[in-house]
Amino acid sequence: MYAIDIMRKLDLSDSIGTLIALAAKSQERLAEIEMKKQLGLTPAQWKVILVLNIVDGPTQKEIAEKINVDGSTLVPVIDKMVKNGLVKRMADSEDRRNNRIFLTKKAESTVDSIIVIILQVRKMIYRGISESDIRITRTVLKSLIANSDSVINEIRSASGKGVS
């Protein structure tokens, strides 16, 4: 009963995890608005372009994993991008069932603009926050990630099998 009472009194609005998630979502929404307004790109499109700028010729499945979407969700996005001349599909030379996705020259020309918008968004959301506070925030967030990953690895090791 005690645990239930504590849970009912837990204020998630001041939770670090909740605040991190809300801050990330807010930043992502602002980036999405700016990408649409300035470049006419949907969230999935500009994220695909950034992935393809870093990784040459991934499969649709690999792209989906990198931008955290379901593979089936990505299919119509890639279809539209092919139609608009932003990417091209090429059959995988080792496995003809898979397609590899590549940027076209048209999409390559948007990469710098996407990066500029991301930097503009950061500048907007960091307004009024000191460089020192930003550095401290990065350090704390990296520590939270490392601690969480460490505990996950301990649990996996102790159980002798992977935790999904």
Automatic annotation (TrEMBL):
Gene Ontology terms for molecular function: DNA binding; DNA-binding transcription factor activity
Domain HTH marR-type residue range list: 13-146
Record's keyword terms, sorted: DNA-binding, Transcription, Transcription regulation
PROSITE patterns, A to Z: HTH_MARR_2
Classification via Gene3D superfamilies: Winged helix-like DNA-binding domain superfamily/Winged helix DNA-binding domain (1.10.10.10)
One Pfam family this sequence matches: MarR
Name assigned to this protein: Putative MarR family transcriptional regulator
Origin species: Candidatus Nitrosotalea okcheonensis
